[in-house]
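Researcher: I'd like a structural prediction for the single chain below. Treat it as a standalone chain; there are no partners to consider.
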Amino acid sequence: MQKIEALFDNPQKNNSIWPLLLTPLSYIYKLGIFLYHTLYSLRLAKTDSFSIPIVCVGNIRVGGTGKTPFVQKLLTDLHKKIDIGVISTGYKALGVSKKQILSCKDNRGLLIPACFCGDEPAMLQKRFPSVDFYICKDRKKALMQAITDKKKIVILDDGFQQRSIKKDIQIVMLDPDCDLKNTKFLPRGPLRDFPSRLAAANYVCLSYEPFAAVNLSLALTNLQPLTKAKILASRKMPYYIKGEWEGPLRVLRHKKIGLFCAIARASRFIQGVKNYQPSLKKTWILSDHAAFSEESLKNFSDRAKNEGAEFLLCTEKDYIKVQSIKTSLPKAYVEMQTEIIYGNTHYDHLVEQILINAKKN
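Model: Treating it as a single chain, here is the predicted structure.
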């Protein structure tokens, strides 16, 4: 999986046979997506409406487009005002199925292991204890449960491609570095849908990494022919170090650390940490959503300690999976906050629109 992801980020540097092998599969995937949308365009497939307002935060590119951070931003601004349910498929979670709806909490209200319900839902649940999460591969089943529970509104974390569900507000997260004209479809490239589908979005949010250069004029020029959606831009910003070792980010300078993560486009996280000039003694990278075994993490901690590391650092999404594992070094994570850096008026309108829809329910 990591080799395929490397093609997305640095195709010009990859001289392997992978591109040749994956290109035919990419055309087959593209044809399948075309036929899928054609069924709905010709009304040969049915779109179901539900008696609850649905806000979808999705993408057209896999991996690292900022869906969950944007959901987190919405929950920050909304969870104290309305009763929200969040629906997730719990990608790669051990307990997820189409038959059962999982929560992130047990009957006593305690968090269940992230490996069972999903790392991203578990991370958000920890931040927002009062929000109910519905984790199921069958989003319609989860929606019906949210209606039964009298939620005022639901947020779909992903689901832009599922046209069998009618959404009231569709937000598409987009990597500003993604060349929509030349990017390939899965599995040769990261596209999971046609760029022309951006026309169905109500909002398109360009998701910038910390410290990345921002060229909004170019991004807006590229988007203009594709959509009439309101355009936002957000940035995920490191805020604080938390966990078993805590402090402001500036104290990372010259600190000896072991860095590990299992996220999409891990190179961006690594570079973001490097901007604070720590001394990286050991680095361990797994594919997105992968689980860290207790033995492997302990071994990594011991090796990092032998190299002089003072603590281990990871993302918040990874920390939620490993916090119960006892290691020879303290574990910590970088807490991130999402900021709107362009289109604040549009974002305020989005929040207002959600609240109005919720009050109608």
